[in-house]
Amino acid sequence: MNLPVLQSDSRLPNAAASDDRQHLLDLSLEQLQGWLAEKKQPKFRAKQIFHWLYQKRARSFDEMSDLPKKLRHQLEESFVVFQASEAAVQSSRDGTDKLLVRLPDGGEVECVLLRDGHRRSICVSSQVGCAMGCVFCASGLDGVDRNLTRGEIVEQMLRLQARLDDGERLSHIVMMGMGEPLANLDRVLGALETARSADGLGISPRRITISTVGLPPAIDRLANSGVPYNLAVSLHAPNEELRSQLVPVNKKIGIDAVLEAADRYFDANGRRLTFEYVLLGGVNDDIDHARQLARRLRNRNVMLNVIPYNAVEGLPYETPSKQSISQFRETLESAGVNVMFRQRKGDEIDAACGQLRRNRGGKQ
Ligand code: SF4
Questions:
Q1: Where are the domains of the chain?
Q2: 22-80: which CATH topology?
Q3: How many CA atoms within 13 Å lie on the side-chain side of 340?
Q4: Is 255 helix (H, G, I), strand (E, B) or coil?
Q5: Any idea which positions bind S-adenosyl-L-methionine (predicted)?
Q6: CB proximity list for 178: less than 8 A, separation 6 or greater
Q7: 144-147/127-129 β-pairing
Q8: 333 is catalytic
């Protein structure tokens, strides 16, 4: 059952259709300091502005009451804080909020807030659409439109943060929304710099996960960045043939190259790797698939996240049966693989990535 889509539940201003001012959220602290220096303003003003934006959740320059009025006016003339608007909001009873964010050029992306105990996790998009073509995913059905900017990624975080109560704070970030984050690595890393900085959202990189289908050169760049983000590699199949069917980009890369790059990431960072496996009824949920998967993962320090598929209208894939889920789990556990079956949060809403955009008939 889908809950009704709310159209007027935005906690932050919805931007005007055309605005040629610069997006403030695109700027690093140093870049803002540079702009302030041009205006003959002291460096510490940049930290004040960041503090208002990321910790005090200001919606406008007007609220930044410890800035001189003239500076607030200059900021207002040069920058827009929020550049997008919320085209739709869905909330489910389990505490999941999903936003469909409309960008200034009409492109739409999704992002999600999940409330789980004390955790306040968000799942954020990195591209409009996706070029990876995973056959079961609504986001990739029409290919990729463009990369998001650093500011557009940060704005999703702030729009989700604005939905929290005053005493709550964001605790975890997952780059697992629409798009392949490693295909837009520079901007994703820029946005995550704001997310983890003490002047930004102050979220430890150990609580930030970057999800990828596995692009080895970009995994190596990420390893060399020296920041210990968690890496989640979407495997979805235990052998070359099936993976190339389900994740077409695999034809050019190969499952062994993906696993070797993941091993190098582990060697560089010492962070336990996560592998994701969307369990599709009758496709990759056989006991034999579980055995092959166990052979691949057995000697690796990994956590395997199995995600029973949410059926998407218009796609020919089915949710696996309870029996196949439990057989799959038993086979992996008895082979000694650390495995977790992820609870499907947001079942009442269009929870699968790309589903809300598609069902709302957004720009495809
Ligand atoms: S599952 Fe992720 S990588 Fe695959 S098409 Fe969808 S958004 Fe892209």
A1: 22-80, 85-359
A2: DNA polymerase; domain 1 (1.10.150)
A3: 10
A4: helix
A5: 179-180, 211, 234-236, 310
A6: 109, 110, 125, 126, 127, 128, 129, 130, 139, 353, 354, 357
A7: antiparallel
A8: no
Superfamily of the domain at 85-359:
Aldolase class I (3.20.20.70)
Nearest 5°: the CA angle 213, 215, 221 is 130
Residue type, 326: S
Greatest Cα-to-Cα distance within the chain, rounded to the nearest angstrom: 69
- CB-count exposure of residue 77 (10 Å: 0-12, 13-18, 19+): exposed
Phi, psi (rounded to 5 degrees) for 331: -60, -45
Q: What is the DSSP string of 196-226?
A: HSTTTT---GGGEEEEES--HHHHHHHHHT-
Write down the catalytic residue from 86, 110, 152, 276. Answer: 110
Structure tokens at 49: 């502005």
130 lines ligand 1 (CB under 6 A): yes
Alpha helices by DSSP H, the chain: 29-38, 44-50, 69-78, 150-161, 185-196, 216-224, 240-246, 250-253, 255-269, 287-297, 322-334, 355-359
DSSP secondary-structure letter at 353?
A: T
Q: Which atom of ligand 1 is nearest to the CA of 130?
A: 8
Q: With bands split at pLDDT 50, 70 and 90, how would you rate the model's confidence at 5? A: low
**Shortest-distance atom of ligand 1 to CA 127:** 7
Query: d(Cα 292, Cα 304) in Å, to the nearest integer?
Result: 13
Two tokens, residue 219: 């995994």
Question: Of 156-170, 199-213, 340-354, where does mean pLDDT reach its minimum?
Answer: 340-354
Query: Is the confidence at residue 359, as pLDDT, over 80?
Result: no
- Give 133 Cα–ligand 1 centroid separation in angstroms: 6
* Number of the ligand 1 atom closest to the C-alpha atom of 140: 5
The rounded distance, in Å, linking the Cα atoms of 262 and 247 is 17
Q: Could you read off the pLDDT of 52-105 as tens digits, one per residue?
A: 999 999 999 999 999 999 999 999 999 999 999 999 999 999 899 999 999 999
d(CA 228, CA 232): 13
- Kindly state if the Cβ of 233 falls inside 6 Å of ligand 1: no
